[in-house]
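Continuing the series of single-chain predictions for the mutant panel. This is the parent chain; the variants come on the following pages.
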Amino acid sequence: LKIIFQLLEKEPLSNPGFHYKGKITGLLGNLTAFQKGKRHLVKDLNRMWLPQNVERLKKADLSELHYEDREMRELMDIIEYQISTCQPSSIVLLDLHTTSAGGGIFTIATDNPESIRIAMELHAPVITGMLNGISGTTLHFFTKKNIRLLVPNLPPHVPVTAVAFEAGQHDDPLSVNRCIAAIINCMRSVGSVRAEDVENRHDRILQEYSKDLPKIAKLLKVHHIEPRDEFQMLPGFKNFQPVKRGHLLARDRHGNIYAPEDGLLLMPLYQPQGSDGFFLIKEINTATPSPNGLPGSIIDPGQKKNKKGKKGGVNNFNFNYQSTTMTDDHLNPGLPSEKHEPNGPTPPPPPKQPPVQEEQTETPLPPNAPPAWAQNRLDLSPLSTAVANVKNELRKVIIGQEKMTDLLIAAILCNGHVLIEGVPGIAKTLTARILAQTLAAGFSRIQFTPDLMPSDVVGTTVFNMKTSEFSFNAGPIFSNIILIDEINRAPAKTQAALFEVMEEYQVTVDGTTHPMANPFFVIATQNPIEQEGTYKLPEAQLDRFLFKINVDYPRLEEEKAILRRFRTDFNQSVKNDVQPVFSPRGIAECRSLTEQVQIREELLDYIAGLVHHTRNHPDLFLGASPRASLAIMKAAKATAAMNGRDFVTPDDIQSVAFPVLNHRIILTPEREMEGFDTKDVIEDILKKLEIPR
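Parent structure:
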């Protein structure tokens, strides 16, 4: 956008005959989320443009809006002001995006013939029918009917057209070049600039990247997803990649996901957030007319000859941006960048402005800005660095099991304990040992057996014959990181010895209290298959674990990677390469940062409602205690901090709800016999609870 505005300002200086007709307004959106490396914080701004949502936000008090709600309201106010003051004869929206997958560029048109015409002139595949598979986009909203929700006095004869342009992959610097070329071609298409003032190279940039791709395609299927689906696209897919019916595309918590029919893959999701896993499209024969009566061939005005008999312009629009490295990969409608109105005398070049991101962080907020905690951001860089270092060390040995490692790190940040349950041989104990190696702290392993006594764990008092005094011999529990292997093989009296130390971080023996060192972190493992020679853990002990992590088998690709890594290293000597990267002092500092992560009052109510529903649910014999509410709050804060945010979102709460609650609630005998699982109940409660806005 900055390059476009610079180009428009400089062009009249080198080309006196240049004339720009109309007004261009540049908008940037998702800036706060983009700075955090996220698609969105609470809601997807690209899916919020529903008429009822616009009406709700228009009536709302701006000072009470937060996150995407506030940003969208600001966009609405800007759009309303620009249209009302400009009084245009027509309105055209060009919505610029990038995707998480490579493989080609494309445009999305509405069913408006003018939208399809403009889309075809951008020299990229035109995808029709997309608006039937998704909702709440700017393309849905920018129509003659909907735009009047913002500008009621807009004359009814003013046409409104919207086109979306997907410029390539997020991390590809050339995506910026393609955005610039698309904007210039769009300005030419709508008559804002003359065709002879546009060089052919803008067409070539787009044509080169869409070479061998279909000219027009229609939407076949959309695979919608929700955060709790745990959707994961298989690696290696690209835009426009042909797939056959039954082709394995992705996995989620329900199992494998296959292509429902033959087609071309579009926008496979390779980023943490999103509401659509992938799209399936089909090429349309371009020799036949489209449903709107437009020809199937691509219009190519850039190849028209100008008055001088040359193709395109020579000196015009000659700004050299081939080497640009701008990577604003969320160029969506949003906060204004700047605008240009060259109708009349050319204004002098404006003073140099700082980058848009800097303006967002340095410009004083208006009086009705969010509360103080939203203005004074928490510096989470020490925590982010520590978490990244720990994960890098774990990956030297552990392949996959990302969810387990994330929850283990979150438990350390929350000063909580973890119970890991899974079949033998899936790296439960190994992960715990390697995690302990990454922490510059003491480590102790206790193998629980049926004959283990409480004194074997906590220690005992013995009489010293030399001094004629009793002295305390500390047990293996006195360390920083405690690995309790096969915890369910010890009898109840030994389990009870852990109650005090896990909750109060101290041990009392013969009336004397012995505090534990800091940090103190218990990782326990158990095997759900073998029941002989095991003892069911008491509910009081289960409640002392922050998380219960259910570990599954690795995926096929992960198992192949395991074999490759250790095919010449039978003794797993790579474990010796793991270095301590997280000191006790660093852990204390990161815990302090986690405590400072903000959580809104509405989200506290959401947590309380979630836990309260477990106590009244008809399928549950036992609900969760207030300790569970505190655990969800702590874990949600840790999750937010690990993701670089100093505030909690509903997604954070939902992501930790199951590992926090699944061992704290008990199904009724009837539901248990019917094959129900605690996960089914937790999901049912989450579906019924209203998510805070």
